[in-house]
């Protein structure tokens, strides 16, 4: 039986998949520069007789199985984050200021494992469908690598697509599922301010850029909370502020950066126009000028009902029905959203926490995973592909 063969194959290769993940973790690469990572994945494809094609930048796509009929796509992301690895693990990052703090090394190793298992089925002539493996670059930047791949036709012939994302709040052996929206929309906002500076003893002769900045920091989130329907779940949060070098000098320049996230796709489509108008209105009394860079990120990932049910069955085959966990929608952005706007698909949340162990949050330098999650990811993705 194909399902039993998948389990046997992954059991055999799990130690190698763990070593693969540790290697990727030790040598992380930032978005659009995943060259070594791509080379490592390509070598696995070559060793297992899987035809593949490298993308123009980094990342690759590989096809397994019948050329005719439906194609099921499986996607993993390759890039790391500009975060310092603060763990003491032997396989900690060797690249200063860069780390796999979002678990993309786990995603990649999991998809490699699924690829090997599916290639084995193809050798045995028991793979019922064609499977496309998408090793995507640049998920961590906006608008993300998915759009470039879609423009290149990566989903041509694909009928469904699946992916997993590490979730450190779930114990290993569990996968969180949800029909409908599972992530939020996410945009990035950068504002540069300019105004007449001067001495703090004479603020009336300046345009007091720091006071204007403070007003923007507090008022933009506040006003947005009254302009969006509360059910949209909009959240405007500043992450970076810069202005001035001395306590007694009102600066002439400053900048702010933050993110706007929301649960509702329709509200997301109107967000940029509203934000630009509000920034101008808030700053107008101060006479400060503003340059606004609004980077439209991603819509919510909306899991298709039927695809989610298929993924539920896959989790049952991989770890048993007790492995399915319910999960709520988050405000985290994920460019897998662009794929499921094109074809039906579903993303699940892969448990990475050791039972009774610590919870290591995503995008933090101390992020750790229970490496048993790699085999779970490989098995779930492989089972999702064959239905």
Main attributes of the structure:
2 domains, Alpha-Beta Plaits, alpha/beta, 16 strands, 387 residues, 4-stranded antiparallel β-sheet, Aminopeptidase, 8-stranded mixed β-sheet
Write up this protein:
The chain is 36% helix and 25% strand. The protein folds into two domains: 2-183 and 299-386, Aminopeptidase (3-Layer(aba) Sandwich); 185-298, 2-Layer Sandwich (Alpha-Beta Plaits), CATH 3.30.70.360. The strands form four sheets. The chain has an eight-stranded mixed β-sheet with strand order 1-2-4-3-5-16-6-15, sandwiched between helices. The protein starts with a helix and ends with a helix. The protein has helices at 2-26, 35-47, 104-123, 145-151, 209-227, 265-283, 305-319, 336-342, 372-386; strands spanning 52-54, 60-64, 71-77, 130-136, 158-171, 175-177, 180-181, 185-194, 198-199, 235-243, 249-250, 253-262, 289-298, 302-303, 324-326, 345-353. It has nine helices and 16 strands. By secondary structure, it is α/β, with parallel strands linked by helices.
């Amino acid at each position: 039986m194909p399902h039993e063969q998948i389990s046997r194959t992954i059991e055999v290769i799990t130690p190698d998949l763990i070593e693969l993940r540790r290697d990727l973790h030790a040598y992380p690469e930032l978005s659009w520069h995943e060259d070594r990572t791509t080379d490592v994945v390509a070598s696995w494809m070559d060793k297992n007789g899987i035809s593949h094609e490298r993308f123009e930048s980094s990342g690759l796509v590989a096809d397994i199985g019948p050329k005719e009929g439906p194609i099921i796509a499986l996607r993993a992301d390759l890039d790391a984050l500009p975060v310092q690895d603060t763990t003491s693990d032997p396989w900690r990052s060797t690249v200063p200021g860069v780390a796999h703090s979002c678990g993309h090394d786990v995603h990649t190793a999991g998809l490699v494992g699924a690829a090997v298992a599916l290639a084995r089925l193809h050798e045995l002539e028991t793979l019922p469908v064609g499977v496309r493996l998408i090793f995507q670059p640049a998920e961590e930047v906006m608008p993300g690598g998915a759009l470039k791949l879609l423009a290149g036709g990566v989903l041509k012939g694909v009928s469904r697509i699946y992916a997993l994302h590490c979730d450190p709040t779930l114990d290993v052996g569990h996968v969180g599922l949800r029909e409908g929206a599972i992530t939020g929309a996410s945009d990035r906002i950068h504002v540069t301010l300019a105004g007449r500076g001067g001495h703090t003893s004479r603020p009336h002769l300046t345009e007091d850029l720091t006071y204007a900045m403070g007003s923007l920091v507090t008022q933009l989130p506040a006003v947005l909370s009254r302009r969006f329907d509360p059910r949209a779940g909009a959240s405007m949060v500043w992450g970076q502020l810069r202005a001035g070098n001395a306590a007694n000098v009102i600066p002439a320049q400053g900048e702010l950066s933050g993110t706007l996230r929301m649960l509702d796709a329709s509200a997301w489509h109107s967000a940029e126009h509203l934000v630009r108008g509000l920034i101008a209105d808030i700053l107008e009394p101060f006479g400060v000028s503003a340059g606004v860079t609004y980077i439209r990120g991603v819509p919510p990932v909306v899991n298709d009902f039927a695809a989610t049910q298929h993924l539920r069955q896959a989790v049952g085959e991989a770890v048993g029905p007790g492995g399915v966990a319910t999960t709520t929608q988050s405000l985290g952005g994920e460019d897998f959203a662009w794929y499921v706007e094109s074809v039906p698909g579903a993303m699940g949340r892969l448990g990475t926490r050791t039972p009774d162990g610590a919870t290591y949050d995503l995008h933090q330098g101390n992020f750790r995973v229970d490496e048993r999650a790699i085999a779970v990811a490989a098995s779930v993705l492989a089972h999702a592909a064959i239905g």
